UniProtKB/TrEMBL annotation:
GO molecular function: methionyl-tRNA formyltransferase activity
PANTHER family hit by this protein: METHIONYL-TRNA FORMYLTRANSFERASE, METHIONYL-TRNA FORMYLTRANSFERASE, MITOCHONDRIAL
Keyword annotations from UniProtKB, A to Z: Transferase
Protein name: Formyltransferase domain-containing protein
Biological source species: Noviherbaspirillum galbum
Length: 222
């Protein structure tokens, strides 16, 4: 009776910043799914740059220097390559395709748009985590600052949508919705980032585990 060699760990790249990026990276490095994945690279926001659209994103709100760099620091502690420049450049394409070589990618609060060359590369897909409500898909809360839009509309909760990245803005195929995350009175955008990020990270890890299991079944049938 022959036995198959164990599957190699899934190579994953994280495009993330702030609390969502920190908790997703932490879950991948320390949570149950860490046994199945290898984080091969982290692209994170350089808040001092002009290309992260900080005036329309979370960086527009009061925050600390520690919050700006906590994803970078976590990656460095684990000796993971960190990239903070423009991603739509030949320099990054070379790193992405020849060094990182991800099987799957996740965007979790990232201030640059992802183009087709990036989102079409990973064989298992390129995904985003986006706050919204269950209002159909694409959600009316597509855009760079969904928590503010939810607060403006007096919503008392959000869910996190895991969806494929495509050439649109939060329009790729919906994969799953998280449980509801309720808003306390007088919550701010920063409060909602903090409170929702651990839930978003565990939700993504669960869905990633399903993707990995499906890949293993497909390999077993080959």
């Amino acid at each position: 009776m022959s036995s198959r060699a164990p599957q190699a760990k899934v190579r994953i790249a994280v495009f993330g910043s702030f609390y969502r990026g920190f908790h997703v990276l932490s879950e991948l490095l320390k949570g149950p799914v860490s046994k199945m994945v290898q984080v091969v690279g982290v692209a994170t926001d350089d808040v001092s740059s002009s290309f992260v659209s900080r005036e329309r994103r979370v960086w527009n709100y009061p925050h600390t220097r520690t919050e700006e760099i906590m994803v970078e620091r976590l990656a460095q502690v684990h000796r993971i390559p960190v990239y903070k420049e423009r991603v739509k450049t030949e320099a990054f394409y070379d790193i992405y395709e020849n060094a990182w070589r991800p099987d799957v990618c996740i965007a979790a609060t990232f201030g640059q748009r992802i183009n087709a060359r990036l989102h079409q590369y990973p064989g298992m897909g390129f995904y985003n985590l986006h706050p919204c409500i269950n209002d159909g898909w694409p959600s009316q809360y597509a855009g760079p600052n969904p928590f503010q839009a939810l607060l403006d509309n007096k919503s008392d909760h959000a869910v996190i949508a895991m969806h494929e990245v495509d050439d649109g803005f939060d329009t790729g195929r919906l994969i799953a919705l998280s449980e509801k995350i309720y808003f306390p009175p007088e919550a701010t955008v920063i409060d909602l980032h903090k409170s929702s990020s651990p839930i978003a990270a565990r939700f993504f890890a669960l869905e990633l585990g399903k993707l990995i299991a499906a890949r293993e079944v497909a390999h077993a049938m080959e």
